Amino acid sequence: MKENKETTKDEKEELPGTPSQRPRTQFLLFWGQLFLLILLPCFGDSACNRVDSESLLSLDFKVSPPLNWSASSDCCSWEGISCHHQDYDHDQHVIRLWLPRRGLTGVIHPSITSLTHLTHLNLSHNSLLGSLPDDLFSSLSSLQVIDLSFNRLINCLPPSSNKISQLQVLNLSSNFFNGTIPSSILVPSVSIFNISNNSFSGLIPTDNGSNHTFLTFLDLSHNKLTDTIPPGIGLCSKLQVFRAGFNSLSGPINDGILNLTNLQILEIFSNQFSGPIPSQIGSLSSLENLLLHINNLTGPLPLSLANSTKLSALNLRVNNLTGDLSSFNFSTLQRLTTLDLGNNNFAGELPKSLYSCKSLTAIRLANNQLTGQISPEIVALESLAFFSISTNNLTNAAGAFRILKGCKNLTTLVLSKNFLFEPVPDDESLGDPDGFQSLWVFALGGCQFTGQVPTWLGKLKNLQALDLSFNLITGSLPGCDKVDRSHLELPVFVKPKNASDQQYNRLSNLPPAIYLSNNSLNGSIPIEVGRLKFIHVLDLSHNKFSGSIPDQISNLTNLEKLDLSYNNLSGEIPASLKEGLHFLSSFSVAYNDLRGLVPSGGQFDTFTISSFEGNPGLCGPPTVHLTCPQPLSPAAGPRSNSHRKLLTGLIVAIGYCIGFGFGFGFGYKQNFIVI
Ligand SMILES: *[C@@H]1O[C@H](CO)[C@@H](O)[C@H](O)[C@H]1NC(C)=O
Ligand SMILES: *[C@@H]1O[C@H](CO)[C@@H](O)[C@H](O)[C@H]1NC(C)=O
Ligand SMILES: *[C@@H]1O[C@H](CO)[C@@H](O)[C@H](O)[C@H]1NC(C)=O
Ligand SMILES: *[C@@H]1O[C@H](CO)[C@@H](O)[C@H](O)[C@H]1NC(C)=O
Ligand SMILES: *[C@@H]1O[C@H](CO)[C@@H](O)[C@H](O)[C@H]1NC(C)=O
Ligand SMILES: *[C@@H]1O[C@H](CO)[C@@H](O)[C@H](O)[C@H]1NC(C)=O
Ligand SMILES: *[C@@H]1O[C@H](CO)[C@@H](O)[C@H](O)[C@H]1NC(C)=O
Ligand SMILES: *[C@@H]1O[C@H](CO)[C@@H](O)[C@H](O)[C@H]1NC(C)=O
Ligand SMILES: *[C@@H]1O[C@H](CO)[C@@H](O)[C@H](O)[C@H]1NC(C)=O
Ligand SMILES: *[C@@H]1O[C@H](CO)[C@@H](O)[C@H](O)[C@H]1NC(C)=O
Ligand SMILES: *[C@@H]1O[C@H](CO)[C@@H](O)[C@H](O)[C@H]1NC(C)=O
Ligand SMILES: *[C@@H]1O[C@H](CO)[C@@H](O)[C@H](O)[C@H]1NC(C)=O
């Protein structure tokens, strides 16, 4: 690039008026020049301003394949460059530098500040590094559009002293900028301001005196901003989108926001806002998305919200909202598609007015104190696919199941921790082809249901995850002779209790796992377990399984966690486990009746005594009996000759804490989920 630049520069300097012209050609030359002068503006290829051309070449972007920027050609014809002809001289100035997604690397060289006529700058989606040149904003005072989003730019923004007074669009999203947001950059002409996904700290900028008449889009989300929303927000009367989620904003939500009658999207989730939702929130008549989840809001759901009739998504989960939910009239919210009021302190009955919101596809009311029963009117919600009401105080499981069976589009139904101590519904017709057949996920954990494992569950052909854990269900795993086996190997998805804060927005993102813990399941672990090759977690702990550990578990080559603790298992730990389970990082057979030598080698060398304790017959490191009594019995313990098929059972009793949700974005704060 550099060589290229030198040679072409020389050529260029030789071009105008060579000294060897003869007098008789001067006449022609004059006419020739005149001709050129007339034609040039039409051809539009007069030389681009030399300063502009040189400062572009000095930018020296490292890029492959290279830009066709060569000093021998007019810079206005270079890739990514547009010029505007200035009447008062014959140069063309560069007004657009537009090279998004071009694989640019290196820094933004300070020579960019010589492009003083630049109005549009788009270098988004490249790999630019370093800080912005100090006088970027103060030199490029004609800039109208700046898009530097999706790069690796760092450090504080340079000061602008209001020089960029034409600025309309600023997008610095998804870089590593830090420091405070200089209020001088939020000039009154700005319409779109996006600094999301950086590390800006300090306050939301306010420019005292300026009223931001043009601001329509303000995205401050994913930064480290503190304090609260400044009252001046109420003067941004054209604002349509305001996002400030994932910051550390606190204090009450400013009433100034109620002035923003054009506001369509208000997203300020995952902050520490406290106090009530402004009681007149319903004056935001254009509101479509109201996302206030994961804050510390108190008080009731304001009745005025019924006036925001364009509302489509309402998410208030994980706050401390209270009041009788049935006193809110949902019936005006005919466009509501997702409603999430989970993890609050709402009381009262399930609001019947909700059943008239025909657009609803997802409802979550989990973790509140709602009482009463599911009413038959719910079947009017024909699009309802996701319904979670776990951890409330509902009663009448048999009635609820009979009604919900009529919600044909339900794919996820979470009823865990309700209906305490009721018998598990065992009406065989629940498994009929006209009921629950769309269900993928069915969670009934922690209901303290009594009775036998209901056989109708085995007829739900699309079921991929089922949580029956923490119930008082007895009996052995049912046989599957009557069931088509093809659907039994579908993956199941759960979120382990101790998983870190993760978001699972799609079923397919979840690690397949099986949790059967904490029931009274008995019988042996059938060899068919070896067919569940896709699973990452197998937890059979705290049951009454007996017999030996089947060799076939070593076929589960994706297994990361295997917990067989607290059962009545006997015999030896199959040595094959250490060959097959290369990813195993958590293993326990504690508190069984196992005996013989603990396998060594592979992952087994990483497990401590706690994985094996409570089995007096086990020997060898890391147990307390370092040597084993001779001779070792090769086939210790009774072999299971069970022909019982486990697979149906596995989907019948898959564990606690299933965690995901479609159509929601969550950041879980709890230890385990409650959907
Ligand atoms: C440079 O490439 C662009 C397309 O990217 C093309 O339009 C332009 O004519 C080229 N200019 C030169 C001088 O080759
Ligand atoms: C910059 O270019 C990218 C890629 O073409 C485009 O998506 C983005 O909208 C542009 N930015 C602006 C502000 O127009
Ligand atoms: C930058 O943000 C603005 C406003 O959100 C948007 O119009 C523009 O397309 C974004 N640029 C990219 C590259 O996404
Ligand atoms: C900004 O980040 C740079 C490194 O990226 C660091 O040296 C500097 O201290 C940070 N400044 C602030 C105000 O956090
Ligand atoms: C806001 O700015 C507009 C246009 O600059 C002006 O007409 C209006 O009076 C200003 N309003 C306030 C409250 O300052
Ligand atoms: C609401 O807007 C009007 C002008 O449109 C302004 O006078 C008033 O101060 C604003 N209220 C708040 C609370 O910002
Ligand atoms: C929530 O607000 C209450 C007072 O309203 C306060 O005591 C509590 O510490 C706050 N919780 C969090 C997590 O900020
Ligand atoms: C809805 O708006 C109307 C007129 O603006 C008002 O009279 C009514 O009180 C509002 N409803 C609620 C529930 O606030
Ligand atoms: C919720 O509010 C109640 C009082 O209304 C308070 O006792 C409780 O601590 C709050 N919970 C949280 C998590 O802030
Ligand atoms: C039910 O779900 C199917 C498949 O997702 C969809 O095509 C259909 O439109 C849904 N029905 C309603 C009433 O929403
Ligand atoms: C709901 O059930 C929980 C425990 O199951 C109980 O502590 C609470 O008092 C019940 N609340 C209501 C309103 O019935
Ligand atoms: C274990 O895997 C082997 C080889 O893939 C296969 O032949 C065998 O049938 C599997 N065992 C079980 C119980 O699925």
Explain this structure:
- The chain has 675 residues and is mainly beta.
- The chain has a domain of 124 residues: Ribonuclease Inhibitor (Leucine-rich repeat, LRR (right-handed beta-alpha superhelix)), CATH 3.80.10.10.
- Helices cover 9% and strands 20% of the residues.
- It contains seven helices and 41 strands.
- It is globular and about 95 Å long.
- The two termini are 58 Å apart.
- The protein binds 2-acetamido-2-deoxy-beta-D-glucopyranose (NAG) (12 copies).
Concise summary:
The chain has 7 helices and 41 strands. One 2-acetamido-2-deoxy-beta-D-glucopyranose binds next to loops.
- Rounded mean pLDDT score: 80
Q: Please name the CATH architecture of the domain at 521-644.
A: Alpha-Beta Horseshoe
First-residue to last-residue Cα separation: 58 Å
Provide the gyration radius in Å: 34 Å
* Tally of separate helices: 7
SSE arrangement:
Layout: H1 2-14, H2 26-43, H3 50-59, E1 81-85, E2 92-98, E3 105-107, E4 120-122, E5 127-130, H4 136-139, E6 145-147, E7 152-155, E8 169-171, E9 176-180, E10 192-194, E11 199-202, E12 217-219, E13 224-225, E14 241-243, E15 250-251, E16 265-267, E17 272-276, E18 289-291, E19 296-299, E20 313-315, E21 320-321, E22 338-340, E23 347-349, E24 362-364, E25 369-372, E26 386-388, E27 393-394, H5 397-404, E28 412-414, E29 441-443, E30 450-452, E31 465-467, E32 472-474, E33 513-515, E34 522-524, E35 537-539, E36 544-547, E37 561-563, E38 568-571, H6 577-580, E39 586-588, E40 593-597, E41 617-619, H7 647-652
Parallel strand pairs: 2-4, 3-5, 4-6, 5-7, 6-8, 7-9, 8-10, 9-11, 10-12, 11-13, 12-14, 14-16, 15-17, 16-18, 17-19, 18-20, 19-21, 20-22, 22-24, 23-25, 24-26, 25-27, 26-28, 28-29, 29-31, 30-32, 33-35, 34-36, 35-37, 36-38, 37-39, 38-40, 40-41
Antiparallel strand pairs: 1-2
The protein binds 2-acetamido-2-deoxy-beta-D-glucopyranose (NAG) (12 copies).
